[in-house]
Write a structure and sequence with these properties.
- It catalyses: N(2)-succinyl-L-arginine + 2 H2O + 2 H(+) = N(2)-succinyl-L-ornithine + 2 NH4(+) + CO2.
- Pathway: Amino-acid degradation; L-arginine degradation via AST pathway; L-glutamate and succinate from L-arginine: step 2/5.
- Catalyzes the hydrolysis of N(2)-succinylarginine into N(2)-succinylornithine, ammonia and CO(2).
- Its EC number is 3.5.3.23.
- By secondary structure, this protein is an alpha/beta fold.
- The protein has a single domain, classed as Succinylarginine dihydrolase (L-arginine/glycine Amidinotransferase, Chain A, 5-stranded Propeller), CATH 3.75.10.20.
- A hairpin with a 2-residue loop joins strand 9 and strand 10.
- Helix 2 packs antiparallel against helix 15.
- It is globular and about 60 Å long.
- N~2~-(3-carboxypropanoyl)-L-arginine binds next to loops.
Length: about 450
Amino acid sequence: MSSSPSGITDHREVNFDGLVGPTHNYAGLAHGNVASMRHDGLASNPREAALQGLDKMKSLADLGYAQGVLLPQQRPDIGALRELGFSGSNAEVLKAASEQAPQLLRAVCSASSMWTANAATVTPSRDTSDARVHFTPANLQSSFHRYLEPATTGRILTSIFRDETYFAHHPALPATPAFSDEGAANHTRLCDGHGGPGVHLYVYGRQAFGGDGVEPQRYPARQTLEASQAVARQHGLSADQVVFAQQHPEAIDAGVFHNDVIAVGNGPVLFYHELAFRDEEAVLDEIRAKLSTPLIPIRVPLEAVSLEDAVSSYLFNSQLLSNDDGSMTLVVPGECQENEAVWNALQNAILAGPNPIGEVLVKDVKQSMRNGGGPACLRLRVVLSEAERTALSGRVIMNDGLHGELGEWVKRHYRDHLTPADLADPKLAEETLTALDELTRLLKVGNVYAFQQ
Ligand code: SUG
C-alpha cells in the first residue's frame, strides 16, 4: 500500500518500530509525561511489551504496509555508571548504584529507545539538496536516561542505512539545552503523495535565544526552535520547504511533551487538536502557502476532546497510513476505545468527516502506553524510493519469517515480570547481553553495541 496519489509510486513510507528491550520497566523517569509519572514503580512485563510491539508490526505488514524494525539498546548501560564513578566488576557496579543512587540505576536500565519517533529526524531524498535520505539522531538531552541513546542510535542507523550513495548521516546536535532535540516526534512532513515534494512542519516548545518568553510553566518544553532550525539546515532544506511552529504552552503543561501527542500528519492531512499550536491560523496559513497541494486539516475542538482526554487516550499518537486507493487508515491505541468522548470524536467527526480517513484500527500497546508511548511513538517514519529500499543493509523488514524468529527470540530471553528492585540483578544484565548479541546476528546488522566494539 502507501503509494503516491500523484503518480510517483516509487516512494513508500517504511515505519521502523523499536523492538522493546529486555529491561522495559516503569521508573517514573519522564517529568511532564503523565503516564510515566503515574506508573512509577509498577511491575512491568518486558516479554508482553515486546510481543505487543511485534504484533503491531506484523499486523501492519500483513495489511501491506512497509514495516521495519530497529534494535533496542544495551541496558543496563554499565559504561554510563562507570563514567559516573562506580567501579569494580559489573555486579559490584550494579550493587553500588542500587544502594547509593537507585535513580541512576533506573535511568541506565530504561528501555526508552523503543520509542523510535525520538530516535532521529529523517528527511526523504525527494526534499534534500543532495537527493539522499538524511538522518540526525536526536540528542535527547532533556533527560539523562534518554541522553544515553544517541550514540548507539547513530551506530544502528548507519549500519542499516549504510550505503552512502543513498543515505547521509549527521551527528546529533550539541547536547545542551539550547539545542534540545527530540527527533521526529516534533517533525511532520506534509505532501501530496510520499514521492512528491514535502513541506516540513517542525514544532518546538521554546526558543533558546530571544523569543517573547511565552513558555510552559509547569512542565519542560523539550524541543527548541534552534534545534529544529539546525536539523533543517543539516538536511539542506530551504525556507520554502519548512514551517516552524510553537507548540501551545497549555498543551505542554497538560502533559503533551511532544507534538506527536497532539497532532499527526500524513500526505496532505493534518489531524490535530485545537490547542496543538500557539498560533493555529498562522501555522495553517504558512503550510497552505508552501504546500503544492490543498491542505486537509482535521481539527478536533477542545469541546469535543479535552486536553486531559487527548493525553490519557493518546488519540493523536496514532499512525496515519496511506492506502493505494487514496484513503488513509488511522492506527489508534486501545485506550481510545475506553474513552467515550474520544471514541465518539473518532466515529462522528473523523470517520464521518470530509477527509480521506476511511478506517480506524485499534492496537494494544498497553505496556508501552504506561510509560507514555503510543503507536506513533513506537515508530520512525522513513520514506524510501525502491532503490533506497533495495540498498538497506541487514534483515530489518518485517515478514512472517522474521516475526516468527523475533517472537521466539523474545520468549527465549525476556522475563515476564520486572520491578525496580530487579534492576540490580547482575543476571538481568547478563541475560540482556546474551539476547542482544544473538539479535545482531539474527538481524545481520553487525556489531552495533558498545560491548561488541
Ligand atoms: O521520553 N517515556 C518516554 C516516552 C516517549 C514517547 N515518545 C513520543 N511521544 N514520541 C519519554 O517521555 C518513561 C520511562 C520511565 O518512566 O520508565 C519515558 O522515558
